[in-house]
Amino acid sequence: MTILFLIVAILFFLGAYIYTRWRSASITKDESGKIADYATILQNLAVFISILVAGGWAGYTFDALKQKESAELVYNQLKEKINNTESSDIKIEVEIVNYQSELAKNGERTKGLIINVTIANKGIKRIDFDLADLPLSVYKVKAYEDKLGYESKMTPKLIKTPYKLYDKDSTLVHLKQWSSMIDSKRTLSYFVTVTPENMYYIVFSTPVSFKKDNSIATEIPDDLLETKCSEDETCNWFASKYVYIDDSNK
Questions:
Q1: Domain count across the chain
Q2: Which of 133, 140, 90 is nearest to 113 (CA)?
Q3: Tell me, what CATH number does 117's domain have?
Q4: How many CA atoms lie within 13 A of 206 on its CB side?
Q5: What is the pLDDT of residues 70-79, one digit of tens each?
Q6: What is the pLDDT of residues 37-49, one digit of tens each?
């Protein structure tokens, strides 16, 4: 674009010089005609190049505006997604099943409680969950009015491979870390045995750990990548649910 402007400027000054020579009284009539022809040619050439420059500049400006609009759109979409990180879903669902444990003592009746923790990552950052500290707790609670306490507590593991029964060399393998990728939805499933006619309080709680996904090519400003949790706060993923185990439940 700069070169085109330079060419137009040279043609302009050259045309001005030819025009000055043409108007000069010291040249002959034949020379005057030739100079006039040259001036006309240069004038037409300058006009043509000016049109090209104007068209190129208009195209460049239009393209720059489109790029700016596109960048603003991407920026706003990223900002919305980052804001959605704080509204990413985590919920607990339970299923009560008839399950009499063979390991129950003194003829105690039991049921099975399947606990599904579903996590939907709506942000643009990977979320890492520390499962080593057993984030799921199942409390057997007793309550009176607004006072509540627990009688016993279970902390089931997210099992990858269970024990092999009656094999003393078998070991249980459980997941100690799990990552929720961007725009993903996964369910972590747990199982415990419970006793009928009791209330249970289920809690899933683990610290927040965000990591930028390097697969996103767009440069994201650092201010957008900051979490909304300040240094004085404890940011935890937290979900809880009460469930009553009735003898009639199936």
A1: 2
A2: 140
A3: 2.60.40
A4: 21
A5: 767 666 666 6
A6: 555 666 666 666 6
